[in-house]
Design goal:
This protein is about 30% helix and about 25% strand. By secondary structure, it is an alpha/beta fold. β20 (about 325-330), α10 and β21 (about 355-360) form a beta-alpha-beta unit. It binds iron/sulfur cluster (2 copies). One iron/sulfur cluster binds near residues 204, 206, 214 and 215. One iron/sulfur cluster (SF4) binds near residues 204, 206, 214 and 252. GO terms for molecular function: 4 iron, 4 sulfur cluster binding; metal ion binding. This is 4Fe-4S ferredoxin.
């Protein structure tokens, strides 16, 4: 297969690497499939609009332009190779429910295409609930006081009252009758959709928890692509309803979610190709065709699919691998990305006295940001391979910036949380409930010296350890901050104790504080029963049983 095609009816003024087939006639390319092309008129897996944008606007000299166009092809091929956004197809039959007035129905069905479908109609006043997804909706209606379930594949809903953007439900008022018909028809030919996110339940802060300490992804999802099963504390994913915006990825604290079209590994590999370049991030939905702007030397665009998935770990990867500030041209910033940029800007300000990321939301701002952007001295840092966990990646890179210094604190939140766990050692009995609660290994127990330890850089600030701690005034969480100092990145002792030896056999069986605490509570009661009973408070399980049996025998 031809890997790369450059098509332009006006041809190209300079040669390209021989891997790229250049053509000015579409006819010549008609039968050829390829991986990457600059043009959507070519049969390509990836259309890289940024190639023409770069060629048209870059101030790089000719030799660098040739190299960089080749690089843009390679970046897109790499992204294609490493992406996990598999396409799926859904068969959708022709049952359509129309929700609206009789007049709206008649108006809508006036079209000739109405014959293609089996239409059902209800008035919005009897609608109770819509469950399921495109292809298998279950619509519950109030049928004269009784609930009736209608099973349909698609829904036309005039003036939809629920504010959601859900596959298979269309509002002709917010678009047009023709557009809705076209969409309905298109879906019956087979609805193609992608799996945009990957999920690791083992580090999810919602999964299998007793209490709800996280559901950030559910809260930011603009559709119903991620929902909660509160009874079992499991997340439910609907790939059909997912728009692929990536908003959930940027707020997921642990990295349990990753963006399939450009996952952590892919983003890392691509970032490495920006060494010596200033990255200009542009979501694919931005219209860059029309923009005439000066891209100063070494500025290289990076096109991304969704506009909301960038988190602090991915952005810091690109910053350090390139050694430059970043320009992000977007008309929308997700909550997570906004926080991530804010955190990184604070960090860069403290360390390098400049912003890390310059955001431009329109052409004027883009022009200004492109004038301002520059390489950041001593900021480049490359690592050989990335770990898959977001917090760990971020910690490795941030530690490099801190570089043994004390740079003070940065404030985080409200959508991207970092925190510090504090333990009041006097009240901690080292029961280790908090260690059991932490599924990202931020809290650990070290048996060699009987310590409870915390690595703040791994903590997701979920608060589950605080809820799990049985002791009063013991474990608390200082939310929304990162301490830019070496201790943030290592395990530090929060509490320590000695082991208590059984007064009968001498075996160490619990921490001294735990035994003393229980003894303090129970002694007044047990001492009234018998001296032996009181002594059991200081015994291991085996000796406790042995003494109790002896006590029983004595009384027999
Ligand atoms: S945001 Fe991440 S950690 Fe939180 S519930 Fe969603 S997947 Fe789990
Ligand atoms: S240390 Fe506590 S707050 Fe931090 S991730 Fe573990 S359980 Fe959550």
């Amino acid at each position: 297969m031809q890997e790369f095609i450059y098509y332009n009816p006006n041809s190209l003024e300079f040669p390209l690497n021989e891997e790229v087939l250049i053509s000015s006639t579409l006819k010549e390319l008609k039968e050829i499939n390829c991986i990457v092309s600059n043009s959507d008129q070519v049969n390509a897996q990836v259309v890289a609009k940024e190639i023409d944008f770069y060629i048209q606007n870059s101030q790089d000299n000719l030799s660098n332009k040739m190299k960089n166009v080749g690089k843009l092809y390679k970046i897109n091929a790499l992204r294609f190779d490493l992406s996990l956004d598999m396409e799926q197809e859904l068969q959708v039959d022709n049952r359509v429910l129309l929700i609206g007035t009789q007049e709206q129905k008649d108006d809508f069905l006036g079209s000739k295409l109405a014959l293609e479908f089996e239409f059902y109609h209800i008035d919005a006043s009897i609608l109770k609930m819509i469950d399921g997804h495109m292809g298998s909706f279950e619509v519950i209606v109030d049928n004269d006081g009784k609930e009736t379930v209608l099973k349909v594949s698609q829904i036309v809903w005039f003036d939809a009252t629920e504010t959601f953007d859900r596959a298979g439900i269309y509002d002709p008022i917010s678009s047009s009758h023709d557009d809705v018909f076209e969409q309905l028809l298109q879906n019956t030919k087979g609805h193609i959709y992608k799996k945009f996110i990957t999920y690791d339940s083992s580090i999810c802060q919602y999964h299998d928890r007793r209490d709800e300490v996280c559901a950030q992804c559910v809260n930011v999802c603009p559709t119903v692509a991620i929902t909660k099963d509160d009874e079992n504390k499991h997340l439910i994913f609907s790939d059909i309803d997912c728009l692929g915006c990536g908003g959930c990825i940027s707020v997921c604290p642990s990295g349990a979610l990753d963006y399939a079209p450009m996952n952590t590994e892919s983003f890392f590999q691509i970032s490495r190709m920006y060494e010596g370049h200033t990255p200009l991030i542009i979501p694919a939905k931005m219209n860059i065709h029309e923009i005439n702007i000066e891209l100063k030397e070494h500025v290289l665009p990076l096109s991304i699919e969704g506009e909301k998935f960038l988190d602090e770990s991915k952005l810091l990867t690109l910053l350090q691998e390139s050694g430059s500030q970043i320009v992000f041209y977007t008309d929308f910033l997700s909550k997570g990305t906004t926080d991530a940029i804010d955190i990184l800007n604070q960090i860069y300000k403290k360390k390098y006295n400049c912003k890390a990321i310059l955001v431009a939301q329109n052409e004027q701002e883009l022009q200004a940001a492109l004038q301002e952007v520059q390489f950041v001295e001593n900021s480049r840092y490359s690592i050989n391979q990335t770990t898959e966990k977001k917090r760990e990646n971020f910690a490795i890179r941030l530690e490099k910036i801190v570089d043994g210094q004390d740079l003070g604190r940065v404030i985080t939140g409200p959508s991207v949380h970092y925190a510090k766990v504090n333990v009041n050692e006097a009240n901690c009995t080292l029961c280790l409930s908090c260690v059991g609660a932490c599924n990202v290994d931020a809290l650990i127990a070290d048996a060699t010296d009987n310590t409870l330890q915390l690595n703040s850089s791994l903590c997701t600030a979920c608060g589950y350890c605080e809820l799990s701690c049985p002791e009063k005034d013991c474990l608390s969480i200082e939310q929304d901050m990162i301490e830019l100092q070496p201790s943030w990145f290592t395990y530090n002792v929060l509490a320590q104790d000695e082991l208590f030896a059984c007064v009968e056999c001498g075996k160490e069986f619990a921490t001294k504080k735990a035994v003393e605490k229980i003894a303090h509570m129970m002694s007044p009661i047990f001492s009234k029963m018998s001296k032996t009973k009181e002594r059991t408070l200081y015994c291991c399980e085996d000796c406790k049983a042995k003494l109790m049996i002896q006590e029983g025998l004595l009384h027999a």
